[in-house]
Each structure stands twice: as C-alpha cells, then as structure tokens.
Amino acid sequence: MAAWGDRLAGVRGVLLDISGVLYDSGEGGGVPIAGSVEAVARLKRSRLKVRFCTNESQKSRGELVALLRRLGFDISQEEVTAPAPATCQVLKERGLRPHLLVHDGVRSEFGQIDQSNPNCVVLADAGESFSYQNMNKAFQTLMELENPVLISLGKGRYYKETSGLMLDVGAYMKALEYACGIEAEVVGKPSPEFFKSALQAMGVEAHQAIMIGDDIVGDVGGAQRCGMRALQVRTGKFRPSDEYHPEVKADGYVDNLAEAVDLLLQHADK
Amino acid sequence: MAVRRALKAVLVDLNGTLHIEDAAVPGAQEALKRLRSSSVIVRFVTNTTKESKQDLLERLKKLEFDISEDEIFTSLTAARSLVEQKQVRPMLLVDDRALPDFKGIQTNDPNAVVIGLAPEHFHYQTLNQAFRLLLDGAPLIAIHKARYYKRKDGLALGPGPFVTALEYATDTSAIVVGKPEKTFFLEALRGTGCEPEEAVMIGDDCRDDVGGAQNAGMLGILVKTGKYRAADEEKISPPPYLTCESFPHAVDHILQHLL
C-alpha cells in the first residue's frame, strides 16, 4: 500500500462517525474510546474542517450531543449530520405521514410531523422497542398501503455497546422488506445523498474529504462510493475479518481515532 | 419437464387450507372423505411450528377431520432430525408448545440456533443472544421462512423475517428445513412409494406450498383461503397448476381430472 503521505495528500475535511469511533454506547450512556476526546480537540484546533456524520437513531441529535459533551467531547448540534432530521425533511417534501417504529429517545425529532392516518413506516434503531408486537404493527401498516413506503434510518448490521455487539436497524429493515416483498429507502449512511449533505454542510468536495468510521460497509464503502477516501478504526464494531472484506478495502486501517488524527495532522493538506 | 404419471399421492397443507385456526374451511371434512374414498394416499404437511404433532392432531380431531398421526409430517420433525444429525446443542427459538417435539435434545451451552414461529421469543434481547451465537460460528437452522400467516386479527409476521434479519446481520445463510425446501417435500413422500411426478400439493401459500412442491416435481394447487391474497398466483413462475376457491374445489378437480 502507498505511503500515508500519498494516501492522505490533499485532505481538507474530515467526516467522523460517532458510535464506535468517539465512544461506545451502553449502560449509563456509554464510555469514550481511549484517546478520542483529545483526538477530536486536536483535529478542531488544526486547519482541517471537521463534521460528524452518524447513523445514530436511538437518540435525538440534542440528546446525543449532550451525552458526548458530558463525556468530554467538543461538539455542537450544528456540527452533526444525523438521519432523523434528514428523514423529517424527506417526509415533509413528499407529504408522507409516518407510522414510527423508533426508540422513545428520538420521537421528539418527529414532533412537527403529522402522524395521523399513516401512509409510510419509518424505522430507526428502536432497541428494546423491537418487540414482535411493534414489528407486527409496522408490517400490518405497510401491508394495508397500496404503495408501501418503508424508510429506514441507516441499514447497519450491528453496532457495539459496552456489553457486546447488538443488532442494528438494518436487520429489522431486512425483516420488513422480506415480509412485505418491498425495498426500503435508506436515509443515512451509506446513502450517497446523506454523505453529500454532510460534505455540503462542511463545504468540502468529496475528493478532498475523508471519512473515519468503524463500519467497513456503511462508513468506508459508502464514503468511497461518493468519491471520498475512508479509514476504518479498529474500535467499536471492528472485527479482524473486516480487513479482508471481499468487496470493500479501506484507504487505511488505524488502531483508533487518535492514530488517525496523528496521521492526518502529519500528512493531510500538503 | 418429466412426463406426468397417474396421480397416487395428495399432500395437503393444514392451517389456511383445511382449517383457519379453530374453524374448519366449509366443506373440508366431507371433501377429505371424498378424497379418501379414491385410491390416493393422503399426507398432511405443515410448517406450523407453534404446535407439536400431538397438538395438531387434537385440533384436527376436534374439527372432526379423519386424520392419523403417522399421516402428518411437520417442519419440527425435519428440524429435530437435522439437530441430531449435526450433533449440536440448539438455542430453541420455538414456541413452548413445540418443545415436546424436541424432548431429549441437549440445549445447555448452546452452539446452534433453531428458529421457528415464536413471537414470545422475538424480542430484542433474545435475538441479540442468537445473533452473538451465530457470530461465533453457530449454524442457523430455520424451521421455515414463511413471510407471514393469517390470524383471527389479521396478517402476522412469520419466522421468515426474523431469520432474514439474523442472516443479514451475520452475513450467513440459514439451513431451512420446512416448506418450500425440496427435501421437505421429498421426505414427506418417503414411505408412500410415490415419485414427485405422481403427487399433487394443495395449499394456501403460493410460494411455500405451491412453488416449493412444483420445484420438487409435483403439481401445485393454490386455494384462495387462509393467507391467500388477490393475485398471489402471479408471484411464481411457472404459475400454479391450478388456482381454485377452496380445498373442496381442489378435491373435486383431482377426482374429475387427475385420476
């Protein structure tokens, strides 16, 4: 593989995944990943532009930012691209009234959206709310629609909590797709529109941007398909087999965000 | 396609075809009698994973169907055989009522996952446990992959969506033992001395009953009861050999045209 200097040349902006890169969620909110608090601070002091690009859909953007600030991160709501606000925009544009299968923590994001007489289903990482009854309600809602629309906030397979790996929304999205014989629309990574909106908010072109994430398919593969570079961290949901993924090859693998930032500060924007 | 021979065996689905939950399909008992008065062998094949064979039989008797235990072949029977053959200790995600069919199977310190229709187990924490076993390399054995089934209060999710969720999350494929697997239909015929070309399957699930049987070389008849929804017959290619109103109509067709 080429030297880091070549791989990181010309990078002007950095998109950071949150869960598994900054912190691992879990009991009591979660714990920061070693070195990540300082790494974000160093990145922000540099000339590089920084934006956070998350598929977090259990919490509202406000709650997520408050949690991260409690853990010591320098982050504000305006710096975060998250799927719930992006979904609200899609719902408004298309006049869709959702039946929500979401975690109570994110419900407030949909406060301004008409939810009467639903004509679509919005699926997010509902955690404990992924009960048979709730899945069945979503299924029945879709089956009653002439043109069933299923919007999924991300399609991740799993993510890491402090207690271990947990099924993510993608698994439940596939369940409903299979049950209804439909294909969901994904708002969030790896959807190109989502990455593009994060790039636009950061004001950096794709070829000058790099994504740092723990998901080889959703973060790395998705960003690369948009013309960005991408690094995978060996934290969060990372598994050793990811480095031999049959379809996706990251532009580099690093032990954690701290190492990624070391390399970026040394080699980027030259 | 193989040349068809005279019909010797009829496979019949239970829930949705002979009865819908605790109500018989009108005229089904008499139709079964008419079928039995001909020379064909009748077998009842079901993906009903909620109930043990004994439970199924009791319900059928209560509804006054003339059926004996050795005529019933279920996906639970098929799953148990596979567990024994693989010598694994399964985490059993099956309805409690199905447990008698797994009596004697070791389930401590599980290294496999058997998944059936078990709404009471399909919760986040339990599915996470299964997911982690699969990541550690445990095989996923699915009793069947039905998308949904019909309850008195409407359509309800079958095990298939949850199997698909685990497959996607772990990037593996389940071993499916029930309908529409070819081996299921062939196993069901075993002991009858009939070839698939000499058999017809009657069911309300276009893909799992009719498509599966036709893939195994049988004829498939789709009935418009149970989970049937308009235009279901267009979901498979080749289409069902026949689509008709209900089980009694299917029997009439067999008696008039296939014998």
Low-confidence stretches of chain B: none
Distance between the terminal alpha carbons of chain A, to the nearest Å? Answer: 19 Å
**Please, how many domains of chain A?**
2
Choose one word for the global shape of chain A: globular
Unreliable sequence segments of chain A: none
Give the name of the CATH superfamily of the largest domain in chain A: HAD superfamily/HAD-like
What percent of residues of chain A are in strands? 15-25%
Order of neighbouring strands in the sheet with most strands of chain A: 5-4-1-12-13-14
- Going by CATH, the architecture of the largest domain in chain B would be 3-Layer(aba) Sandwich
Question: Any idea of the CATH class of the largest domain in chain B?
Answer: Alpha Beta
Question: If you compute it from the alpha carbons, what radius of gyration of chain A comes out, rounded to the nearest whole angstrom?
Answer: 18 Å
CATH third-tier fold name of the largest domain in chain B? Rossmann fold
Helix content of chain B: 25-40%
How large is the count of helical segments of chain B? Answer: 8
Q: Could you give the order of the helices and strands of chain B?
A: EEEHEHEHEEHEEEHEHEHEEH
Shape of chain B: globular
Biggest beta sheet summary of chain A = 6 strands, parallel
> What CATH architecture of the largest domain in chain A would you give?
3-Layer(aba) Sandwich
**Tally of structural domains of chain B:** 2
> Would you give the CATH topology of the largest domain in chain A?
Rossmann fold
Question: What would you note in describing this structure?
Answer:
The complex is a heterodimer of chains A (270) and B (259). Helices cover 35% and strands 20% of the residues of chain A. Chain A is of the alpha/beta class and 270 residues long. Chain A has a six-stranded parallel beta sheet with strand order 5-4-1-12-13-14. Chain A has a four-stranded parallel beta sheet with strand order 6-7-8-11. In chain A, strand 9 and strand 10 form a beta hairpin. In chain A, helix 2 packs parallel to helix 9 and helix 5 (132-144) crosses helix 6 (169-180). In chain A, 51% of the residues are buried. Chain B is an alpha/beta fold. Chain B folds into two domains: 9-47 and 179-258, HAD superfamily/HAD-like (Rossmann fold, 3-Layer(aba) Sandwich); 89-176, HAD superfamily/HAD-like (Rossmann fold, 3-Layer(aba) Sandwich). Chain B has eight helices and 14 strands. Chain B has helices at 28-36, 53-62, 75-86, 124-135, 160-170, 182-189, 206-215, 247-258, and strands at residues 9-12, 19-20, 23-24, 41-46, 72-74, 90-93, 112-115, 140-142, 148-151, 154-157, 175-176, 199-203, 219-223, 242-244. Chain B has a six-stranded parallel beta sheet. Chain B has a four-stranded parallel beta sheet with strand order 6-7-8-11, sandwiched between helices. In chain B, strands 2-3 form a two-stranded antiparallel ribbon. In chain B, strand 7, helix 4 and strand 8 (140-142) form a beta-alpha-beta unit. The longest helix of chain B is centred in the first third of the chain and has 12 residues, at 75-86. Classes of the chains: A alpha/beta (270), B alpha/beta (259).
